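Lab manual, section 2.4: Encoding a predicted structure.

Procedure: take the sequence of the chain (217 residues), apply the prediction step described in section 2.3, and record the output as structure tokens. A sample record is shown.
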Amino acid sequence: KRPIRILMSGPAGGVIGGASEGVMAGVGDVITVDIGGTSADISTIPGGVVKIMNPRDTYVGGHPVLTPMIDLVTIGAGGGSVAYIDEAGAFHVGPRSAGSEPGPACYGRGGTEPTVTDAQIVLGRLDPDMALGGDLKLDADLAYKAVEEKIAGPLGMSVRDAALGIIKIINSNMALAIRSNSVARGIDPRGFSIMPFGGAGPLHGVALCEAMSARDV
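Recorded output:
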């Protein structure tokens, strides 16, 4: 009867689950970082208490929804975020995503633009033979080619350095989002545990913990 109540229900489920896991683990202060293929959803949970926004401050897609929602920040940062060089020669990652079709170059479905997932494969952080337990075969050569042709070559750097650059930029974007949901609201993240989950979460957890000087992962 009120479909508006399911807005952001997926990210909200992650936050509630993260808060519950934090309580069970004896960790009171948690920052959840839910990283999928397209976006990263971030929420700060002080003392295990999920924060609820005032209905007057709730927006989805820039539109006011006037209904209580969990306080979280969503940015365009995920495994499918596309790395590119703009017309001025600046190096960017996201918010545009390759999605699932064609997906990252390594999917072998016609995608030619390098993504965060391709960079992780180039760096050896993702095993191309074990994605989804081996059910999804990834092509490391296509990942390497995309990073080389679109980033490394134009910028005159090695493919490995280009891949590292992609990861550093996306991590920096997410660290800024964490600060906007913590420091900007008077919360010191240094006493919090970072709880990364989602398809790409574990690949970024340690770097985000270091960037925020957080307690642990």
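Check your result against the sample. The chain is about 35% helix and 20% strand.
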